[in-house]
Amino acid sequence: MHTLYWKPSSGSLAPMALLEETGLPYTTVKVDADAGEHRSEAYKRDVHPLGLIPALKLRDGRVMIESAAIVAYLADLAPESRLAPAPNDADRAFYLQWLVYGAATLYPCYIRFYHPDYHRVRDGDDEAVQDLALTALNEAWKAVETAFADGRPFLTGERCTAADIYIAMLALWHPDKKAFKPACPGVDRMQAAVWQRPAAAKALALHAR
Ligand SMILES: N[C@@H](CCC(=O)N[C@@H](CS)C(=O)NCC(=O)O)C(=O)O
Which positions, given as ranges, span the membrane (predicted)? Predict the structure, then answer.
């Protein structure tokens, strides 16, 4: 049995959606971030060394971190869910590309935007940090939109993969939904399709505050 450490409105959404989609048995630990539980020495020692969410305790008791890695791991663990192209499928290259792009390029823009204090060098920096983060975020989303130029419903083609679920989570966090929709219509259609899936929708409902 896996155990997901999660909190509402956070990067545990995609891992939980994967657990729901795959039907793998799991339990959850809801981290009381408002009380600072994730910053405790015990949490950093036993769960996440940086005091972040999510984390996944594996069946053997070890704990893995990094939301995209958790998503990829779960998709591979349940091949019958067909959420990960097989290693010998050329789509696998782009599946991995978008998963890692989400984690390495989009996610950090959000952290800069929503936590300008983490990047503050001097008092009064926050607005400039947020402006730069939003510009970088919108540039980064433009690149994702190119995947949908041929009208395909999902990032790698006709089938929803774990990368779509991950990117759909990140699309939800955009601070300007009104501007995002017309700027990235392909991403917007894809994310709406992801959240219509009953299993993903269950995780989304739990993550709403
Ligand atoms: N690279 C990490 C980032 C995780 C992360 O930044 N999580 C945020 C929530 S979305 C968090 O735990 N923030 C708590 C804090 O900053 O105190 C991953 O993808 O798992």
Answer: none
- The model's pLDDT over 130-160, given as tens digits with 9 standing for 90+, comes to 999 999 999 999 999 999 999 999 999 999 9
User: What CATH number matches the domain at 2-82, 3.30.420.40, 3.40.50.720, 3.40.30.10, 1.20.120.450?
Assistant: 3.40.30.10
Task: Describe the strand order of the beta sheet including 63-65 as a list of residue ranges.
Answer: 26-30, 2-6, 55-57, 63-65
Return d(Cα 87, Cα 149) in angstroms, integer. 25
Give the range among 114-123, 134-143, 171-180 with minimum mean pLDDT.
114-123
Q: Does residue 111 have its Cβ closer than 6 Å to ligand 1?
A: yes
Helix (H) or strand (E) holding 22: helix 13-22
